């Protein structure tokens, strides 16, 4: 599933696409605990979270996550946006909650990251 398709499914605003709109997202994980993200992520996955601080970008970089969706219309600050641009990580924001965002993507065929 492409980032553009994900944005359409979630009615999401693309904050920064970092030239990743055509990458193939193969799975998604939803978490606010970054330790869970590091444990359960898979390559080419999407992170769905309510956290907007810079440590989310740093965690995504370590995990190889190229796209993050912020839920409940949350928007990161300028520092977080600049860090995401520097790390080539796409940022989106949706009005849906984490549960609904995950469900809509799963219903559209995007599996979860849990493979342990």
The CATH topology is: Udp-n-acetylmuramoylalanyl-d-glutamate--2,6- Diaminopimelate Ligase, Chain: A, domain 1
CATH C-level class: Alpha Beta
Low-confidence sequence ranges: none
SSE pattern, N- to C-terminal? HEEHEHEHEH
* Whole-number count of domains: 1
Which radius of gyration do the C-alpha atoms yield? Answer: 12 Å
Distance between the termini: 22 Å
Q: Helix tally?
A: 5
CATH superfamily: HprK N-terminal domain-like
Main sheet summary:
5 strands, mixed
How would you describe the shape? Answer: globular
Describe this structure in words.
With 116 residues, this protein is of the alpha/beta class. A five-stranded mixed β-sheet has the order 1-5-4-3-2. It has one domain: HprK N-terminal domain-like (Udp-n-acetylmuramoylalanyl-d-glutamate--2,6- Diaminopimelate Ligase, Chain: A, domain 1). The mean pLDDT is 92. α3 packs parallel to α4. The longest helix has 10 residues, at 54-63. It starts with a helix and ends in a 9-residue tail after the last helix. The protein is 37% helix and 18% strand. 38% of the residues are buried. It is globular. β3, α3 and β4 form a beta-alpha-beta unit.
């Amino acid at each position: 599933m492409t980032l553009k398709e994900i944005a359409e499914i979630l009615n999401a605003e693309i904050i920064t696409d970092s030239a990743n709109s055509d990458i193939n997202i193969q799975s998604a994980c939803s978490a606010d605990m970054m330790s869970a993200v590091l444990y359960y992520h898979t390559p080419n996955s999407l992170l769905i979270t309510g956290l907007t601080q810079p440590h989310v970008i740093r965690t995504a970089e370590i995990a190889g996550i190229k796209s993050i969706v912020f839920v409940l219309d949350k928007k990161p600050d300028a520092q977080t946006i600049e860090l995401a641009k520097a790390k080539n990580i796409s940022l989106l924001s949706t009005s849906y909650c984490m549960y609904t965002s995950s469900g809509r993507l799963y219903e559209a065929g995007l599996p979860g990251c849990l493979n342990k």
